[in-house]
Amino acid sequence: MARKIIVGRSIGFCFGVTKAVTTAKKVLNEYGCLATFGDLVHNPIVMSELKEKGLRVIENISEARNYPFIIRSHGLPPDVLQKLKQYATKIYDATCPFVKKVQNLVKDLSSRRYFIFLIGDPEHPEIKAMKKIAGDNSMVIRPYQKFDTSSIHLKKWAIIAQTTISLDLYRTAIKKIINTLPAEKLTIFNTICPVSIKRQSEALELAQKVDALIVVGGRKSSNTRKLVHIGRKVNKNTFLIESSSEVKNLNLANFEKIGIISGASTDVRCIREMIDVLSDHPAQKKYRR
After folding, report:
1. How many helical (H) and strand (E) elements, i.e. helices and strands, does the chain have?
2. Within a 10 A sphere around the Cβ of 217, how many other Cβ atoms?
3. Cβ(126)–Cβ(163) under 8 Å?
């Protein structure tokens, strides 16, 4: 009996990452160089390929001098973008359309004097940009974090989620905020990316069907880590793998059905390689007769 490999329906780049990577490759082919703040996408394999083509990851705005620059899919705070225009020769905006939509929502709510709760990782570039847009009348909260609302004087509150957070973590944060509610009005927005929601749903469904679930993606990727979190809730044999070479180190001898799903910044080529390695994995031969 051969091992069965079940691949999730939603794999490979999401549309936002596709836009960023396609734009970067086009600029690199034209100019041979390109700068960005932090990783363009949270995937080491994709980043390695882009760096080989001339992509330069910078930390200070001044390092963008005389370089074309690409805004990564997570977006940039308005003040940083304004300063950047003084240095970069040309700026390409690869902000994910959905992230940009949420940024505009935050800007609108801030202008209407809402106090905004931003639920997510305070160190994530997407949340950092939104916090800058929201201004002083805002608070970044991790889902399980304790917080104090006693100093909030605005009567209208809004809750916004990082686009890659899991639904269950968002619900946890919402309940905690509601329990402190002295506001006259509270508006909750579902700003989780539809692609993330779909993949989270598929990860949960697949994890319940297989003996082991392999999540393919970068360890720095928020949406990838959320898939791992969801998978492990129902299947302890859920593994996060960045590259196909890591599969060889897994003990898969006792797993007959293996599921594969990917983060939104994982190239579909990596998933194909993963399938090829799994098909030729030493433990696979134990299932062949």
Report:
1. 9, 12
2. 26
3. yes
Amino acid at position 115, single letter: F
Amino acid at 52: E
Q: Which residue type occupies 218?
A: G
Q: Are 97 and 15 in contact (CB under 8 A)?
A: yes
Predicted local confidence at residue 107, as pLDDT: 96
Q: Where are the alpha helices (DSSP H) in the chain?
A: 15-31, 44-53, 78-84, 97-111, 125-134, 167-178, 194-207, 222-234, 268-279
Q: What are phi and psi of 262, to 5 degrees?
A: -130, 155
| φ, ψ for residue 137, nearest 5 deg | -85, 60
Residue type (1 letter), 238: T
Nearest to 73 by CA among 198, 179, 196: 196
Q: How far apart are CA 223 and CA 197, in angstroms?
A: 10
Return all residues near 95 (Cβ < 8 A) that are at least 6 apart. Answer: 71, 72, 73, 74, 75, 76, 103
144 burial type by CB count under 10 A (0-12 exposed, 13-18 middle, 19+ buried): exposed
- Summarised one tens digit per residue, pLDDT across range 180-200 is 877 688 999 999 999 999 999
In the chain the domains, ranked by start, together with CATH numbers, are 4-12+194-287 (3.40.1010.20), 15-95 (3.40.50.11270), 98-188 (3.40.1010.20)
Instruction: Say which amino acid occupies 232.
Output: R
CB atoms within 10 A of CB 73: 28
Token pair for 165: 């957070």
Which of the 8 DSSP states describes residue 3?
Answer: P
User: What pTM value is reported for the model?
Assistant: 0.84
Which residue numbers in the chain have pLDDT < 70?
1-2, 183, 280-289
Which of the residues are catalytic?
A: 126
- Pair of tokens at residue 227: 């898939």
